[in-house]
Design goal:
The chain is α/β, with parallel strands linked by helices and 132 residues long. It has a single domain, classed as 3-Layer(aba) Sandwich (Rossmann fold), CATH 3.40.50.720. Helix content is 40%, strand content 22%. It has a 6-stranded parallel β-sheet with strand order 3-2-1-4-5-6, with helices on both faces. The longest helix has 14 residues.
Length: 132
């Protein structure tokens, strides 16, 4: 699969490496030049740019992508990336990271999100599941 990971921070970098290990074609879009250079030095393909801007995603191959993962550290940015990826760039599958679980209600099809994940929410659900 051709996958774009928007946001190359700690989580985005880990996601990109795991997807590459599963034989996917992965392109990371990262706005911070130092982080982008570090990812590239580690062997990842990187476009330095703002993933909230369509031209940055297009430079990363969005018009041919199967999946986009909006994985920045800001929920509002992940929502903007998601809706642009789904509605403007017509990427078939959009997955978004939720940083603040209180914002979970926003991450739905209206915003272009096919699936959303919150680390805190997943941990709480797992804890609640084991306490039954």
């Amino acid at each position: 699969m051709k996958i774009i990971v928007a946001g190359g921070g700690l989580v985005g970098g880990q996601v990109a490496r795991a997807l590459i290990a599963s034989n996917n074609q992965v392109m990371v879009v990262e706005s911070d030049r130092e982080t982008a250079a570090s990812l590239a030095a580690a062997g990842l393909e990187v476009v330095t740019g703002n993933a909230s801007v369509a031209t940055s995603l297009e430079a990363a191959g969005a018009l041919r992508a199967d999946v986009l993962v909006a994985c920045t550290e800001r929920d509002e940015e992940n929502l903007v990336i998601s809706i642009m990826a789904k509605r403007h760039l017509e990427i078939p599958r959009v997955i978004a990271r939720i940083n603040d679980d209180a914002n979970r209600w926003l991450f739905d099809a209206f915003w272009g999100v096919d699936a959303a994940i919150s680390s805190a929410g997943a941990l709480v659900a797992l804890i609640e599941q084991t306490s039954d």
